[in-house]
Design a protein that fits this description.
Layout (H helix, E strand, L loop, with lengths): L4 E5 L5 E6 L6 E3 L3 E2 L4 E2 L4 E2 L4 E2 L4 E2 L4 E2 L4 E2 L4 E2 L4 E2 L4 E2 L4 E2 L4 E2 L4 E2 L4 E2 L4 E2 L4 E2 L11
Parallel strand pairs: 3-6, 4-7, 5-8, 6-9, 7-10, 8-11, 9-12, 10-13, 11-14, 12-15, 13-16, 14-17, 15-18, 16-19
Antiparallel strand pairs: 1-2, 2-3
Organism: Microbacterium oleivorans
Protein name: Transferase
InterPro entries: Hexapep (IPR001451), Lipid_A_LpxA (IPR010137), Trimer_LpxA-like_sf (IPR011004)
């Protein structure tokens, strides 16, 4: 049986240890909190301080930076990037290759389409069709 973790050196020369999540085999850094019912697919990275709630689904190749929070039943499609300190609300859906900037907030049940970018600190709410609501 193979080991259940991997060590990776970051840009500052520090070695970070990631464990493979039992539900999807994505890589979870020490210090990140991922609910056992969440799915983190292989090839996804969850950095220290990030939190992923119950029922969330994290696709292949997703990068969740430090201190980001993913709400219950949120879905992050493959190859999306969730910036440091960003918050994705309960039931929100983030499309393929989306970028959510540092400290951005996506409201509960929002739909962010494929290839969209949300700037640092931006607050976004949409209806179920993905049309942005007035702030």
């Amino acid at each position: 049986m193979g080991k259940n973790y991997i060590d990776i050196e970051n840009d500052r020369g520090e070695t970070l240890r990631y464990r493979k999540h039992a539900n999807g085999r994505g890589l979870i850094a020490n210090g990140a909190k991922v609910h056992p019912s969440a799915v983190v697919e292989a090839g996804a990275y969850v950095e220290p301080g990030a939190q992923i709630a119950a029922g969330a689904r994290i696709g292949r190749g997703v990068w969740i930076e430090p201190d980001a929070m993913i709400g219950p039943n949120a879905e992050i499609a493959p190859h999306a990037h969730i910036g440091p300190g960003a918050v994705i609300g309960a039931g929100a859906k983030i499309g393929v290759r989306c970028f959510v900037g540092a400290g951005a907030r996506v409201a509960n049940e929002s739909l962010i389409g494929d290839d969209e970018s949300i700037g640092d600190g931006e607050r976004v709410a949409t209806d179920r069709r993905g049309l942005r609501l007035a702030a």
